[in-house]
């Protein structure tokens, strides 16, 4: 027989809700760990007195009694687990696992029995239901009725508000009220918060970040009372999960964080964390409202009647003694600036991220605590706005993702080394596609150093590219010749000097101007040459044979209907994903069949293409389409060319010195002037091809 028995997905009822976790039976202890909160219940084997096996709503459950009066219930076992658990209990615990049936008759008349912290309602000596008395928040009495109210839990979809018991007047001893006796039995074990008696100590006007405000904190033996100007909160110590004492980055303040489950609430707002902010320089002298013997007996030297020191030390010391929880402080992590935290943003609010020995905690709005055991992986992502920062993403096993953004780039090395030392799974988006990296923690750990260096270099290179890109945006589309700033300035000056008279420039200047103006013309031709490429891509022949499909596409077309029928309501993108997975799992023989079909389709396509080309296909149709598309634009080009040619001939014939050279006139101005002055006779012509071919000199003589 094994030394231990372990079971997963075992449920424990906590204030009306089921929390799952893991249960382990060992020879020394029975340990249950809550998956949601991480809380651990440890029961020494020497304290076990009784064990019971029964059928419950979640399969089968175990009920354990201890010598201290506590009762523990765990549900979610299978029917087949009874035999091995019973044998293990007999061999190691010397306790017999007794089977007990629950009453399912549905009767509402029976006997109420108080068994430690439980109120059991039995019908014919079989329990119908049980009420944990620590879930009772209030108990009220009537003439013959007792009303029991319960603490509410926000995690439950349906909450039990109250239960009423009718107590017959004949029960009980003579002279005693049975209703009051029933109510006192409940109140003796109930978790009723009543601010009766004096507080152990009071801290005045403490600054609280969540809930925000200044509160007087009264420390009672069983609960914590926050008294503010607007709201009051009473927090039982049983709801406190953890305590944190965190130094601020400025080294002048301290955070004291109290984790709560279930949280305190105000209206629709829930506060899972109580965060207090202290100044390190603030001191206090504290006197407990108890005598020295009582302090020594109750706190066993953890507290003294008279204490003095820093305010944050006194508060944390008193809370630790009353709650009986350890205080978590930052470990050995130190950031780039020497602080034990990292400045970052979460949900558009700036705060501090503390890497702890067993998790991360973010302070303060909203507070987040993530344990290492619930983290699936972490990711270092490049910042969305600037390369001087990066984002730290944490993904939990439940599928939730937390992104801490705007972390300084200098913190990357320290944070990466910390995560690597804690053996957390790291996935970087830039390394997802590497072979063997996906889902392999060992591969991630082997390449951690390479990822570290590559990521830093990538951030530096991207920063340089962005800085250079701002200066070179305007010159991206220009040729190498026009990138010289000196030449560019000279050309621009000549272009905007077009109003100068011809007498101001010599023949040499004209020649140099002509040479300079040839370059922009080349640029214009170079830009226009790109357009026909797009036209060539758009031109398609519908009568040409279609390209053959690959083996995968042939298989997909034949399997698409089957995938839709097996997965009703599946989307188009999901079909592609599903088909890709099915194709990967397809056997080698099946793939060879589809490969052979693809080869046959390729041969058929080659044969059809040869016949198509031999029959003259692909030449006439494409030429006709190009002529139709280019027809309209060619007419305008011909008009401009003919007008420009006639204007040059006129210059040579007349020899007018006052005429401006065409280098200083735009193409639109020249075409408009030629159309107005000398193109009136040409407008009446029917064939523009003939107008272009006629000699310019003949028309000029006729017009003169």
TrEMBL record:
Gene Ontology annotations of biological process type: DNA repair; DNA replication; regulation of chromatin organization
SUPFAM superfamilies (UniProt xref) = HMG-box, PH domain-like
Question: What is a single molecular function from GO for this protein?
Answer: DNA binding
Where this protein primarily resides, as one coarse class?
nucleus
Q: Where in the cell is it found?
A: Nucleus, Nucleolus; Nucleus; Chromosome
Q: Where is the composition biased (Low complexity)?
A: 692-704
Q: State the function annotated in the UniProt record.
A: Component of the FACT complex, a general chromatin factor that acts to reorganize nucleosomes. The FACT complex is involved in multiple processes that require DNA as a template such as mRNA elongation, DNA replication and DNA repair. During transcription elongation the FACT complex acts as a histone chaperone that both destabilizes and restores nucleosomal structure.
Protein's name in the database: FACT complex subunit SSRP1
Species assigned in the record: Carassius auratus (Goldfish)
Q: Which gene encodes it?
A: LOC113076237
């Amino acid at each position: 027989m094994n030394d231990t028995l372990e079971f997963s997905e075992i449920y424990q009822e906590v204030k009306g809700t089921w929390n799952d976790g893991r249960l382990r039976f060992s020879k020394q202890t029975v340990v249950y760990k809550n998956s949601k909160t991480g809380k651990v219940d440890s029961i020494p084997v020497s304290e076990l007195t009784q064990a019971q096996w029964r059928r419950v709503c979640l399969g089968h459950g175990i009920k354990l009694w201890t010598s201290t009066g506590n009762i523990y219930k765990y549900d979610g076992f299978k029917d087949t687990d009874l035999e091995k658990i019973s044998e293990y209990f007999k061999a190691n615990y010397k306790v017999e696992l007794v089977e007990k049936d629950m009453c399912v008759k549905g009767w509402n008349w029976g006997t109420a029995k108080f068994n430690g912290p439980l109120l059991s309602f039995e019908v014919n000596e079989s329990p119908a239901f049980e009420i944990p008395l620590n879930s009772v928040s209030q108990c009220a009495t009537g003439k013959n009725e007792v009303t029991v109210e319960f603490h509410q839990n926000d995690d439950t979809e349906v909450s039990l508000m109250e239960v009423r018991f009718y107590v017959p007047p004949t029960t009980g001893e003579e002279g005693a009220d049975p209703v009051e006796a029933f109510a006192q039995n409940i109140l003796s074990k109930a978790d009723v918060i009543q601010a009766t008696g004096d507080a152990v100590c009071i801290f005045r006007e403490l600054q609280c970040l969540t809930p925000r405000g200044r509160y007087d904190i009264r420390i009672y033996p069983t609960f914590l009372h926050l008294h503010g100007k607007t709201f009051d909160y009473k927090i039982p110590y049983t709801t406190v999960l953890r305590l944190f004492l965190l130094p601020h980055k400025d080294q002048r303040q301290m955070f004291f964080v109290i984790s709560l489950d279930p949280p305190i609430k105000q209206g629709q707002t829930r506060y899972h964390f109580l965060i207090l902010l202290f100044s390190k320089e603030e001191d206090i002298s504290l006197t407990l409202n108890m005598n020295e013997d009582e302090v020594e007996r109750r706190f066993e030297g953890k507290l003294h009647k008279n204490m003095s020191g820093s305010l944050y030390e006194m508060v944390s010391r008193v809370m630790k003694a009353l709650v009986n929880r350890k205080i978590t402080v930052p470990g050995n992590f130190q950031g780039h600036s020497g602080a034990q935290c990292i400045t970052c943003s979460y949900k558009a609010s700036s705060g501090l991220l503390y890497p702890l020995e067993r998790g991360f905690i973010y302070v303060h709005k909203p507070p987040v605590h993530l344990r290492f055991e619930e983290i699936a992986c972490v990711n270092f992502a490049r910042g969305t706005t600037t390369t001087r920062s990066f984002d730290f993403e944490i993904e939990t096993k439940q599928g939730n993702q937390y992104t801490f953004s705007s972390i300084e780039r200098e913190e990357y090395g320290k944070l990466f080394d910390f995560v690597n030392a804690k053996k957390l799974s790291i996935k970087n988006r830039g390394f997802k596609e590497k072979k063997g990296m996906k889902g392999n923690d060992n591969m991630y750990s082997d390449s951690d150093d390479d990822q570290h260096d590559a990521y830093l270099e990538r951030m530096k290179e991207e920063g340089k590219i962005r800085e250079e890109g701002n200066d070179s945006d305007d010159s991206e589309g220009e040729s190498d010749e026009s990138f010289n700033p000196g030449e560019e300035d000279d050309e621009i000056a000549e272009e905007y000097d077009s109003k100068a008279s011809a007498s101001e420039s010599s023949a040499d200047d004209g020649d140099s101007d002509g040479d300079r103006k040839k370059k922009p013309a080349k640029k214009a031709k170079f830009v226009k040459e790109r357009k026909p490429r797009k036209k060539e891509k758009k031109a398609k022949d519908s009568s040409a044979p279609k390209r053959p499909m690959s083996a995968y596409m042939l298989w997909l077309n034949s399997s698409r209907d089957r995938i839709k029928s097996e997965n009703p309501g599946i989307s188009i993108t999901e079909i592609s994903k599903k088909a890709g997975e099915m194709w990967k799992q397809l056997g080698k023989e099946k793939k060879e069949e589809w490969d052979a079909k693809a080869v046959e389709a390729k041969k058929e396509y080659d044969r059809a293409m040869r016949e198509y080309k031999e029959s003259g296909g692909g030449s006439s149709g494409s030429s006709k389409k190009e002529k139709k598309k280019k027809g309209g634009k060619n007419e305008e080009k011909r008009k401009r060319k003919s007008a420009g040619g006639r204007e040059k001939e006129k210059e040579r014939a007349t020899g007018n010195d006052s005429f401006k050279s065409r280098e200083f006139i735009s193409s639109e101005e020249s075409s408009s002037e030629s159309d107005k002055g000398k193109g009136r006779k040409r407008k009446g012509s029917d064939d523009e091809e003939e107008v272009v071919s006629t000699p310019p000199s003949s028309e000029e003589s006729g017009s003169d």
